[in-house]
Design brief:
The protein is of the alpha/beta class. It is built from 7 helices and 7 strands.
Length: 234
């Protein structure tokens, strides 16, 4: 992890380390893709929030988009939603969309909107979840399989794409054990001491499972997928 984040800002390091099993694979994907973009490429980060990945695009023209009622609204460049972007056709070379499409009620519409604002041959760089608990309710609508996201990309008329698992099954189980340790809650039912013991056991289990990560070859139970898709002709 230290090698992955070496030289990065404290803000970005803290963001990734808040949920390292989940966010390290997302960071690694975005970082790897950002490094090979042409200088001056026009990049739109959809649903960017506090824009934790901004510093990865210092050589590009980087803009953020989020909706008006987000707590980050004052810090974004464009106000809108993933399915209604206030930009003209072909205005961007790259659209970045990390862990957002599960919160969009009509993801096909959003993918078509990304395609619209991309130049022909432009890139969509996205990550989507496959395994995670409900969150940011009530706006949590989908989880994505590889065939599912590929089906949507095909219908949105992207010319080509690559969809890859972000983690192995043991890292997925480790993350779920960690999540379960903290989402079970508490109640005045006399069982909180048992819940604390369960939390400790789950955290220990999580650490043990991470060590098994190299054993998974097929990666059929990842936390989610990375998406690199090329926009076709309009």
């Amino acid at each position: 992890m230290d090698d992955l984040l070496r030289g990065r800002s404290e803000q970005l390091r803290n963001f990734v380390l808040e949920a390292p099993l989940e966010r390290s694979s997302i960071f690694a994907f975005v970082d790897r893709q950002a490094r090979v973009l042409k200088a001056g490429a026009r990049v739109l980060d959809v649903g960017a929030g506090d824009a934790p990945y901004r510093e990865l695009f210092v050589g590009q023209e980087y803009l953020t988009l989020d909706h008006d009622d987000t707590e980050h609204a004052g810090n974004v460049d464009l106000h809108g939603s993933a399915d209604s972007i206030p930009a003209g056709a072909g205005e961007f070379d790259v659209v970045v969309c990390t862990q957002v499409l599960e919160h969009v009620p009509e993801p096909l519409t959003a993918l078509r909107e990304f395609h619209r604002v991309l130049v022909p041959g432009g890139l969509l760089l996205a990550t989507v979840p496959f395994v995670w608990e409900e969150h940011e309710l009530p706006h949590d609508y989908f989880r994505y399989t590889r065939p599912g996201i590929e089906h949507l990309l095909r219908r949105a008329e992207y010319a080509e794409w690559e969809v890859q698992p972000r983690t192995d099954c043991f890292t997925t189980l480790a993350q779920l054990a960690h999540n379960c340790a903290w989402i079970a809650g508490s109640a005045p039912d006399g069982l909180d001491p048992a819940r604390r013991r369960a939390r400790e056991a789950l955290e220990q289990l999580s650490e043990s499972l991470v060590a098994l990560a190299p054993l998974d070859i097929d990666k059929r139970l990842p936390l989610g997928y990375t998406v690199r898709a090329v926009a076709g002709m309009p």
